[in-house]
Amino acid sequence: MAAPAPVVPDEDPSFDELLALRPHLSVAIDSGLLVEGVPLARIAAEQGTPTWVYAASPITGRYHALAGALAEAGLDARIHYAMKANDALAVVRLLGSLGAGADVVSGGEFLAARAAGIAPADIVFSGVGKTDAELRLALAAGVGQINVESAEELAMLGAIADGMGVRAPVALRVNPDVDAGTHAKITTGRAENKFGIPIDTARDLYARAANAPGISVRGVAVHIGSQITALAPYRAAYARLAELVRGLRAEGLPVERVDCGGGLGIAYRNEPAPSPAAFAHMLRETLGGLDLPLMLEPGRWLVGPAGLLLARVILEKQGAAHRFVILDAAMNDLIRPSLYEAWHAIVPVSPSRWHARLSPAEVVGPVCESGDSFARARMLPGLPAGALVAILDAGAYGAVMSSTYNARPLAGAVMVRGTDVAVIRRRQTHEALLGQDVIPSWLASG
Ligand code: LLP
What we know:
Layout: H1 15-20, E1 25-28, E2 32-35, E3 38-39, H2 40-47, E4 51-55, H3 56-72, E5 77-82, H4 89-98, E6 101-104, H5 107-115, E7 123-125, H6 132-141, E8 145-148, H7 151-164, E9 168-175, E10 197-198, H8 199-210, E11 215-221, H9 232-250, E12 257-259, H10 276-287, E13 294-296, H11 300-303, E14 307-318, E15 323-327, H12 336-340, E16 346-348, E17 359-364, E18 373-380, E19 388-391, E20 412-417, E21 420-425, H13 430-434, H14 441-444
Parallel strand pairs: 4-20, 5-6, 5-13, 6-7, 7-8, 8-9, 9-10, 9-11, 11-12, 12-13, 15-17
Antiparallel strand pairs: 1-2, 2-3, 4-14, 14-15, 14-19, 16-19, 17-18, 20-21
Helix pairs in contact: 3-4, 3-10, 6-7, 8-9, 9-10
The chain binds ligand LLP.
């Protein structure tokens, strides 16, 4: 039997390579790592750590790049930012000011979108289980579109809207049974997933929706998963969607728009992420022939690369088998590495650390679980107590997935624009955290 081929681990990108692909980050000999024009060391001194740091310019730049590529491909396409990726009002407002609508998945996100200045008509309400109260809230405000995910939900929504004397603007989210080739926990377009209406039954349901009281059916929607780095799954899903639309039209059913969902991946490490131009070209090839307005729901692609988590080393500990770098950030702040084995770049802030000798380190937080890890066997210099590190590409699914596990208050957030730093979310205080709790009177005395 032939010897198995040796496993050659492909190397992580160097610090210089990481920065070369992230133009809003740079390094200066005196002040270390900068976000736009602001040294991260200054932000840490003023705000403490851990702190989320979002740069405005990449958000603006990426929105324009995507919108520009869609326009260049001759598509009439509108971007609805999936605010589950980052629901900071400042982030939503920035994208809204550029022309984005919002894709929301809860009453809370709906209210946040409104608070950020997004008009109700520019909001799409997605999600597999919307409550009666959430649907009423959205309908009363004049929501632009509700993506319905089942026959049961269609009936529920129709009854609510009819009772309110309105007609709900609806798109049917279909499940195209396509494997997005992404992490199992974030794939959504397989038949076995909980999402969407099986594509084979969508035509019948659409016909029913067209005549249902309280419903004004406008189109179809699809979303196959997140962090998709290949175009083939999109191509397959959109081809099936186009076929469905043609079938609906052949039956004389009106289709006004197609919601293409989100999911476009980014390069965290060295993934070959599709360019906006390639994505737009694929959309044109698959859906362009329908000559319908398209809607897109990107989240991660717009905001992921724009954010980082700034943390301080509590101490370095030499364990029996590993060197541990213990940060003051933890899995309660950024859970992606623990939950999905996600790779995030970790870069020292101090320039003196950049050219020091590298050796493998386990980068962990102080939470009492072995799963509280940011990186395994990561090549890093010695990082003494007090050193700062930036965990990159944490602008999407970072702060929004935080918890207060281990009674750790939620970290604050700043937005940097040029040389300006604005606090956009205050750090939660211990008082606020404890203040949610109530001790019943029968326990209070004694
Ligand atoms: N539209 C719908 C209906 C969605 O469910 C999602 C994401 C999006 C749009 C936006 O997808 P994006 O463009 O951001 O990939 N927490 C995971 C990601 C979960 C995505 C859930 N749905 C992570 O950290 O990777």
